[in-house]
Amino acid sequence: MSRKLTIRAFKYNPLNKISKPHFVTYELEETSFMTIFVCLTQIREKMDADLSFDFVCRAGICGSCAMMINGKPKLACKTLTKDYPEGIIELMPLPAFRHIKDLSVNTGEWFEGMCKRVESWVHNEKDTDISKLEERIEPEVADETFELDRCIECGICVASCATKLMRPNFIAATGLLRTARYLQDPHDHRTIEDYYELIGDDDGVFGCMSLLACEDSCPKELPLQSKIAYMRRQLVAQRNK
Ligand code: SF4
Ligand code: FES
Fold first, then answer.
1. Mean per-residue pLDDT of the chain
2. Distance, CA of 183 to CA of 191 (rounded, Å)
């Protein structure tokens, strides 16, 4: 039997001088396997065309639809309403990112800054010849390296990180994962000293307090804590030389 759902969505437009932060409550009929994304689409189509939220893929791939769902950062398109037995669901925008409107935040500018900061590209002195095949690496090394490319840049690990909320310049789990990805990749010729320059401080790998929320919340189940520990071990060994 279907039930009524109560959705309380945060609404605020920082660019509108008369807009004030507030919640709006919507009631809708639950359908089987309904996701929060489906609720939001119904609300926008039938009740409130002004409600802003982000999505692209609707399949847990693009990372656009992350938001706070009853206080926890999650992907709206992968979160089922049946997992909320009380039927009351409160939606807020992710913290730690620039708020655009209602449930929409700008994760793109943060990720662009993070990629530049950790120099998220292969560093190699050789000139690239795109007519040639890429240099071969061992399959298990390739697997381990490309596994870390599964990050969808949803921002959930950033929003769930207490260190990041206290220290705005903290590079967060996804940034540290990115450095581990390139350190593992034999195509990248950077040394540990180079990584020390990028993340060897409290805004980098030494700032993480191992609170574990990043790994608990990551929708792609990436090994965030083990890769942070790996980077920390590498950098500590370098410092103690
Ligand atoms: S590491 Fe996981 S939680 Fe963090 S941005 Fe990537 S996919 Fe999202
Ligand atoms: S819409 Fe792409 S991850 Fe949810």
1. 95
2. 8
